[in-house]
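Kindly go through one protein, given below as sequence and tokens. The question is how this chain folds according to its tokens.

***
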Amino acid sequence: MQDADFAKQRLDILLEMKQLFDSWDGTATHGIKVIEKNKEHIASLQIFDSFEDVSPFSKTENELLIKVIQKQKLVMYTLRNSKEELLQKAKKVNQKGRIIESYINMKKTPVFVDRGM
């Protein structure tokens, strides 16, 4: 395959990656889907990178790659924040559950008062 063909395919992959990130709606769920889809593209780029006779990235490819990396960082930041929020909510639910359980256990234990004392 010619160097120009590799460069064209590489550029197409980067454009598809950018389009996927541009389509991201800002939610964690969609962010996960975008990252999953882009894993295939990353694998393809790594294959191209393993060939010795392929020219380095062009200026356009470098600019696209930078944009893709920036978008991916933003998605990852959003995913981390969503994970933290979910962990905090889970802690609150667990804490409420323990409080309720403690209250129920207190109600269940009989209290005997010896009035004859």
Residues 3-79 form one domain.
